[in-house]
Design a protein that fits this description.
With 208 residues, the chain is mainly α. 88% of the residues lie in helices and 2% in strands.
Length: 208
Amino acid sequence: MSSRIEQIIEEIEEYVESCRYQPLSTTKIVVNKEELEELLRELRLKTPDEIKRYQKIISNKDAILADAQSKADNMISETQAKVQEMVTQSEVMQRAYAQANETINDANMQAQQIIDSATQDANNIRLSAISYTDDMLANLSQIMSTTLSDTGEKYNAFIGSLQSCYDVVNKNRSELAPQTAQAAAMSSDDDDMEDYEADLDLPEEDDE
C-alpha cells in the first residue's frame, strides 16, 4: 500500500501533465497557483510523519529481522520435528511389519508342526488298528479252524454211526426177506380164493 506522500506526488504529476502550455512555448505551462500550493502544503505536512514512520521502521529493522528470524527458526524446528516424527513413525511401521511377518512365520511353523504331529499320530493309530485287526482275524481264523476240525471229526463219527445203523437195518431186512416172500405168497392165495368164490356167486348161509 502506497503512502500519502507518494499519492500527493502522483497527484502533482498528474496536475502538471494536465496544465496547458503557454502560448508559443513547449516547456512553460500555465498553473493554478492555489491548487498547486494546496498540494505542496499537504506534502510538507505529511512529510514529517512519513519520515518519522520510515525512521521508526528503520530503527526497528533489527527487531523486525530478529522476529522474522525467530519465526523462521521456529518453522524450521517444527518442520524438522515433523520430519523426525514421520521418520520415527516409518521406522516403527517397519519394525511393526517385520514383527508381524515374524509372528506370521512362527504361526505357520507351529501350524505345520501341529499338522505333521497329527499326521504321524494318525498313521500310528492306523497301523495299530491294522495290526490289532490282523491279530483279531488271526485268532478268529484259528478258532474257526479248530471248530471245523472238531466238527469234522464229530460229523465223521455221526456218519459212521449212521452207516452202522443203516447196515444193521439192511441186514435185518435181508434176514426177513424169505419170510416176507412167503407171507406175500400166502396173501396172494387168499386173494385168489376170494375172487374164485365171488365168481361162483354162492348163496350166503343164513345165520340161525
